[in-house]
């Protein structure tokens, strides 16, 4: 089961990286340059609050996942890893 979860998370991470670049118009960034633990905001990828709104739209459009709580989004939007984990939990109920 753990291998299945990790495989699913890896697929989600790869899709997320491509979609983040597309949705946020990060033309100078390649998916492989975004590490799973890279902070999305601040010193990491350098995203801002407008980008956070775009990520919410991206999650709804591409994964059918909603983020309703602003406080919750702070934890979810830390890195590609935290986003992938949230999507996985929402999709599987895990």
Strand percent estimate: under 5%
Please identify, by name, the CATH architecture.
Orthogonal Bundle
Q: Give the CATH level 1 class.
A: Mainly Alpha
Helix content: 55-70%
Radius of gyration, whole Å: 13 Å
Overall pLDDT score: 93
- CATH superfamily descriptor: ACP-like
- How many separate helices? 4
Q: What shape does the CA trace take?
A: globular
Total separate domains: 1
Low-confidence runs: none
Q: State the end-to-end distance.
A: 12 Å
Structural class: mainly alpha
Order of helices and strands: HHHH
The total strand number stands at: 0
Taking the sheet with the most strands, its summary is: none
CATH-assigned fold name? Non-ribosomal Peptide Synthetase Peptidyl Carrier Protein, Chain A
